[in-house]
## 1
Amino acid sequence: MERAGMVYEENVRVFLKRDLGIFAIHAGRHKKDLVAEHLDQLTIFNVDVPKIKYAEKLTTCVGKAIAACTDKSRKILTSVYLLDHLNRIAMKEIGYGQSRYWELKQIALDEFMDNFAKYQKQIGLEPAFKLVK
């Protein structure tokens, strides 16, 4: 992860597969807590620890960004990145063939990156993440 001023630049897949789990732990959450149906029930710790507050904001941004995606994109992102299913399992759950699934996954990642940037700005996440492919 590179720090350029007040922005971290990170590959979106690395962020979702590796970094998100670490931030979820710091926030006292599990990745599956970020599923759209559970977003209203996220716990917020009343502590003045910057690392925890940052992790809470960041994981909330992720949950909201995934929830704001189209239905197909939300299903793919939730299955692969929040529930840690293998791509072939997600492919079966969603019911698409391999080439169509990979095409939809790329669309899902693009949607997520756009939504994530919007929610970061809304919440005022500092330092921010610039997710790239």
## 2
Amino acid sequence: MKTYLIDDDELAIYLTEHLLRAEGFSNCICTFQSAQEALDKLVGRKQAIPQVVFLDLNMPLMDGWQFLDALTPYQEALRGTCHIYILTSSLALNDLEKSKQYDLVAGLIHKPLDSEEIRSIQSLYSDGEVGDDEPCDC
């Protein structure tokens, strides 16, 4: 399944992408260190919509909340096909409450992402998985 990984931390991207690949989560993982870059790709519609997006909250220029706000005009087109999981190192309960205000947010995960969480998410969306022979259009 096509997956976006959005995080400004290079090490976090490396570790999360490595774990996703080791667990066989996706054969198409597109990584972005900028939420704006990911937003431009997502709403540009020149490529397939990612089925799962892992989104860091705390980033410079455009944070995760601003990314979600920017998706509001596209919400209807993305609902049911694009599932966003917020990745956060924060333990603030208000992040969980705020995440519930966004229809596209499927869950909030405390960093670091682990194998059990990956398998759980994978089991929810594996029916629509992209075949290994299809090109990845990051």
